[in-house]
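Worked Example 4.2. Consider the chain below.
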Amino acid sequence: MFPGRCLPGALPLVLIFAGALCVHGARAADPFPVKPVRWVVPFPAGGPVDLVTRPVAQRLSEAWSQQVVLDFRPGAGSIIGSEIVARAAPDGYTLLATVAQHAINPAVYPKLPYDTAKDFTPVVQLVRSPFMLVVHPSLPARNVKELIALARRSPGQLPYASAGAGSLNHLAGEMLRTSAKIDLVHVPYKGGGPAVIDLVGGHVGILFSNIVAVAPHVKSGRLRALAVTTAVRTPLLPDLPTMAESGVPGFDAESWTGVLGPASLPRPIVERISRDADRVLRTQEIRDAMQAQGAEIAGGSPEQFAARIAADIARWAKVARESGAKAE
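Applying the procedure from the previous section yields the following structure tokens:
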């Protein structure tokens, strides 16, 4: 080709190539999101995770002018829904709204269809949810030290309830059992609701439970609250001591709800979702809604959320190893 001249057909090819570059560049620069975002919720609709995530999803829908759709995929201790997201394209349009069970599962299930540590990208922790240790009033224990002393006097005779084998309240019970070196009897139920009902009825004596499920019964005197399970006291119940303050050092069995994406989720998308969700969480309306569910606003950076998940994976692996707890 000579300067100032063009071979027949060359100019159209140049224009086509340039046009293709322009289209590719425009797509690469598209702001997120440009279509509806799917949040897979691996628990039933109407449950605690729904009640926490739905108001946040609604506010993000308004901020993004795109729908954030909750897709409920319950079953197998959150594994079914989690696998969907682990196998999804890392484009930000399929995310996982899950809880602390996500970090427990590697410890209690012998084989998972994904790697909890490697197949997900932590995006944002929405809330933290303290649990309470509650007992039936017929149990002669008004604090954790008295409960431990009672268990030592009656080895193998004190039953504690849980929402099922491998659940957070099961592992919290095992953490107490191994830390205090006492012999408690695990009684698994099919869900937290039946466990609370039997506790109120006096069929079991002990339960670690989320605040919302048992607070009305504590207020009415049908249950007695002994401690919160978080490392520090919760502003939701500032007068209730922690397990650590009550004689079980290092006890931390906090639940949480957060959003994760598939592995290799691009950093700009992670930052956009995290930043916008954090902004939503700081509004008084959302704060009030979360408090009504017995939850504290978390927010923070993706790195902080990743650190929390890693710490929980290590914590529950240790509890399961020392206690022999399994989900099956």
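The CA atoms of residues 32 and 269 lie 7 Å apart. The longest helix spans residues 302-323. Compare this with Example 4.1 before moving on.
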